[in-house]
Amino acid sequence: KTLQFHVSQELFSSHEVDAGTRFLLRTLDRLPMADVRRVLDVGCGYGPLGLTLLKLDKRRSAHLVDRDALAVEFAQQNAALNNLHNVSIYGSLGYDAVTEGDFDLIVSNVPGKAGEEVIAHLVRGARPFLNPTGHAAIVVVTPLVPLVEQTLAEMADCAITFKQATANHTVFHYHFTAPTDDAPQPAFTSGLFWRDQVAVEYKKLKFGVQTAVGLPEFDSLSFSTRLLFNLLNDLPDQPIEHLLVVNPGQGHTAVAAWLSLHPQQITLVDRDLLALQTTAFNLQQNGCPTDHIHSFHQIDLPAMAAPANLVLYPLQDSEGPKLAAARLNLLAARLAPQAQVLIAANS
Q: What backbone torsions phi and psi does residue 295 show, to the nearest 5 degrees?
């Protein structure tokens, strides 16, 4: 079978389908693939695993999930490009947003830098989503093999049916031998992503944030964040109606703006679902009511019920000047009269 993929250089394996994914696909004939009708691809990227399995048998249905909205967008484009329709593609931190179960096959090219707790959760967490005869098939980079072996060994009713290694990757096929009524363990609310509690003190601002593994600024503030703090400190200390934060990261600037300006509405926009949920958590921990916070997991700017009075926008190097300029033009159309946009970036 031949598939076409649109890719972005900001996504994993954008030059070609990576060796781990190709290795995993080559091993799947060891499974009873003729019986596979429902597939879940966790951390789907632009879709090479899940969409290939659909292309091989169009009687199948599939769910593809990823925490990166850019990956979700490209996977959706690639499903249409390859004329594949029986598929749901959406954002999720691991299994957190997956509401269906009874999958025959769960596949994942496990991200190597997700953190040990998260990786172990991805391995263990397949169980509630598989039907009684279902299998999980994963590929991991070589340094993760001891962690995966230990995680699988700790589950008494887990049986490894296939294991094969190259110099750089190892594939595991496994299934569960006993039925379970266990509910899925949510990754985010269980604290699997948490790293450290950090106290932030900068001029008149003092607050705490919970940092997450896999996001920058987990132990110190970036220069861009300090620039935004300088700008925030120069603003009049008066309430604003609507704060828009693009690329909120761990939530440092969003919390600072909440504590100093007390906005009635806070809109968060980020392609990284972990950044959105971490920022919302830190806002709530610092007294912001939940109903003040509106999160949008997307690469575009959302349609908003009310224009923004203040925008915080740290530009990211990976986005490049064209995307930054396009975003600024979109922001201009969403501003209230006399609104301000605070931008921080390197030169």
A: -110, 140
- Could you tell me the sign of the dihedral formed by the alpha carbons of 41, 301, 254, 325, in that order? positive
Q: What is the DSSP letter of 278?
A: H
pLDDT tens for each residue of 203-254: 778 999 999 999 999 888 999 999 999 999 888 877 799 999 999 999 999 9
Cβ within 8 Å of residue 339, ≥6 positions away:
307, 308, 309, 310, 311
Collapsing DSSP states into helix, strand and coil, what is residue 206?
A: strand
User: How far apart (Å, rounded) are the C-alpha atoms in residues 156 and 60?
Assistant: 31
* Beta pairing, strands 103-109 & 242-246: unpaired
Q: What's residue 181's pLDDT?
A: 78
pTM, 2 dp = 0.94
CA–CA distance, 234 with 115 (Å, rounded to integer) = 38
Q: How confident is the model at residue 114 (pLDDT cuts 50, 70, 90)?
A: confident
Place of tokens 């159309």: 333
What's the rounded Cα separation, in Å, for the pair 136 and 126?
A: 7
Helices (H), the chain: 19-27, 48-56, 69-81, 116-124, 145-153, 223-234, 252-261, 273-285, 320-332
- CA atoms of 331 and 312, how far apart (whole Å): 11
Strand extents, DSSP E, the chain? 38-42, 61-66, 87-91, 103-109, 130-141, 158-165, 169-176, 194-202, 205-212, 242-246, 265-270, 293-297, 308-314, 335-344
Tokens 């070609």, located at residue = 16
- Average pLDDT value for the chain: 93
pLDDT tens across 260-313, in order?
A: 999 999 999 999 999 999 999 999 999 999 999 999 999 989 988 899 999 999
Q: In whole angstroms, what separates CA 2 from the centre of its chain?
A: 28
> For residue 305, what are the contacts with CB-CB under 8 A and spacing of at least 6?
none
Distance CA 70, CA 91 (A): 10
Can you read off the two tokens belonging to residue 316?
């990211």
The identity of residue 312, as a single letter, is L
